[in-house]
Amino acid sequence: MATPAPPLPPPQAARRRHSKLVRCIAIVLLALIVLVCIVVLTIWLVIKPKRLVYTIEDGSIYGFNLTTKNHLNATFNFVLRSYNPNRRVSIYYDKLEVMVYYSDEVVAFNTVDPFFQPHRNVTRLGVKPVAQDVSMLGSEARDLRLEKSAGVVELDILVKAKIRFKVGVWKSRRRTLRILCSPVTVHFSSSKNFERTFCDIDL
């Protein structure tokens, strides 16, 4: 005689077990999230990261030539001061691009060699964006000629950098840093009258 099959568990009991499993998973996930938040907060309190400070310390223009066809040739010479005020955070600058804007138009470009900046350090970079046969719009070229005649020009400098932070042996993933210095007033005749320009950063 065949043995009868065991009775199936009531639906309510199955639902209760499923509900307990879901609650356990939710509690574990919540505990992990809280743990990660505590770790991040602890690291932040220990490191106490401070905002990086960038300024343009000096600026000049060499070999300026704006042709009758509105093509610009020039070399811009700037000193970018980078200040890292942090006690424990160092910075790898893996890639740097420097662009000079005139009236929202890029007129010069160059790159800077990668470098490492220790904590509580000031580094001065000589950057030389070059305008090589850059075609300008008629209105911008006309305004630039007028400013050249006046002996002074206002420019915007944008620096795009790929950086990594270093704390002890830990290194962060690569992040994009944007440094905007505006307006930068440059005298054509001399850099002696140059006034320091503070920059805004976006990280």
UniProtKB/TrEMBL annotation:
GO biological process, one term: defense response to other organism
Cellular location(s): Membrane
Membrane topology value: Single-pass membrane protein
Domain Late embryogenesis abundant protein LEA-2 subgroup, first and last residues per copy: 80-177
Keywords: Membrane, Transmembrane, Transmembrane helix
Gene Ontology CC annotations of this record: plasma membrane
Membrane listed as a keyword: yes
Superkingdom of source: Eukaryota
Membrane-spanning ranges: 21-47
PANTHER family in the record: HARPIN-INDUCED PROTEIN 1 CONTAINING PROTEIN, EXPRESSED, LATE EMBRYOGENESIS ABUNDANT (LEA) HYDROXYPROLINE-RICH GLYCOPROTEIN FAMILY
Descriptive protein name: Late embryogenesis abundant protein LEA-2 subgroup domain-containing protein
